[in-house]
Amino acid sequence: MTRPLEGIKVVEVAMWAFVPVAGAMLADYGAEVIKVEPTTGDPIRGLRSAPGAKGAEAIELSWECYNRGKKSITLDLKLPEAHAALMRLLEDADVFVTNMLPRARKALDIEAETLRARFPKLIYAVGSAVGQRGPQGDKGGYDAITFWARGGVSSSTTEDGAEYPVGPPGPAFGDTLSGSMLAGGICAALVKRALTGEASTLDVSLLNVGMWSMQRGIAQTTIDGVDRFPRPPRGLPNNVLSYTYETSDGRFLALCMLQQDKYWAKFCHVAGRPDLANDLRFVDSSARRVNVEACMAETIPLFKSKTLAEWKDILGQQDGQWDVVQHVGELHADPQAIANEYIQTVTCTAGIDIPLVSVPVQFDGWPMPAGQSPDIGAHSDELLARAGYSEDEIIDLKVKGAVF
Fold first, then answer.
1. Tell me: the pLDDT tens digits for 322-375?
2. CATH 3.30.1540.10 region(s) of the chain?
3. Strand partners for 37
4. Radius of gyration for the chain, computed over Cα atoms and rounded to the nearest angstrom
5. Are 292 and 237 in contact (CB under 8 A)?
6. Domain spanning 244-329: which superfamily?
7. Stretch (H or E) spanning 324
8. Which of 62, 105, 131, 145 registers the highest number of CB atoms within 10 A of its CB?
9. Can you give the pLDDT at residue 337?
10. Are 131 and 205 in contact (CB under 8 A)?
């Protein structure tokens, strides 16, 4: 199978998760992604944040997920010999992608102006915290503080009166979304260059992606002149068929029947409560909204009276939209995830099989195959040789500490 970015070369000078996610997506799409690591390696390699995982002493799942399919070369870019090697790698590159802060890019002489002057067809892509203009353009950030906290996501998912704001649901939640945006922007820049011959300089920030995710709430709060996105109190929804209900076995069902009058009567019938459909207090959406407390006093116990399995069978008999509130550990067994190959098994360099989620874009009915993440500096010799270095020159770079 031909992948859409085969023949594209990407050089990535980035650490942690946000920008590496973009590189991983491009690698799955078929690009050759060369990850330039410091001689100590990307620090995400050392997190060991999965102590309960089989073989966790040998792997870091964040590294494996966000650096799949790449080639690794180690360069100490503070040394002129390593900087020269980077320039050799860029001679035939299509994309340079980085999350280095502006001051670090200037110190390493890898600013956009510098590289584009030398390589005018090079697409220069940056993943930043809060954007590159303004008084905080040189500020760093992480998804938990910049996307999740500053971007309004945490506040908007926290119930009124909660002791603490809600934290991210897992590692790199905002990074994966932001990296996907960056990968999409790079693909658009490749199309623009193919059509016009012009290379672009891109910036995607964690803050902007957080705001993009919250844009409906931002629009409404700005218009209304309030700080928080208004939502009905728990237990008093505007739409009783757009709510999350608990079952008798402690599981939850999420209903999202936005056209509630279209589905109300059939729902009541299959749920064994046709009387609710005929009750004048609940006969249409306006009546249910006025009598929401009384309506919820009927629906909450109704859902609590049956198990999740029973409700799955019942709700399957009507056309309204619903789904199970699944635990993350259940997703690998989701029949749709299996049928569409949303999870792939990849053997990492430690010899351990790990499940990796497929890039959420399929071409011609097939998922993009995920590759193996590289050992530190695994491809240094190969890439330097391809860049024209002789064996003796490569040894000399290693002796000088420019290459690990």
1. 999 999 999 999 999 999 999 999 999 888 899 999 999 999 989 999 999 999
2. 244-329
3. 74
4. 26
5. yes
6. formyl-coa transferase, domain 3 (3.30.1540.10)
7. strand 322-324
8. 62
9. 94
10. yes
Residues 197-223 have a mean pLDDT of 94
The DSSP code for 393 is H
- Residue appearing with tokens 């002489």: 109
Residue 316: φ, ψ to 5°: -70, -10
The long-range contacts involving 231-236, CB below 8 angstroms and separated by at least 24 positions, are: 233/160, 234/159, 235/296, 235/300, 236/292, 236/293, 236/296
Annotate 123-139 with b (16+ C-beta within 10 A) or e (fewer).
Answer: bbbbbbbbbbeeeeeee
Instruction: State pLDDT tens for residues 150-209.
Output: 999 999 888 888 899 999 998 899 999 999 999 999 999 999 999 999 999 999 999 999
CB burial of residue 335 (10 Å; 0-12, 13-18, 19+): exposed
| Helix (H) or strand (E) segment spanning residue 80 | helix 80-90
For residue 187, the Cα-to-chain-centroid distance in whole angstroms is 16
SS3 353: strand
Structure tokens at 367: 């998922």
Are the C-beta atoms of residues 29 and 368 closer than 8 Å to each other?
yes
Q: What is the third-level CATH fold of 9-215+340-399? A: Rossmann fold (3.40.50)
pLDDT of residue 48 exceeding 90, the answer is no
Residue 160 confidence (pLDDT): 83
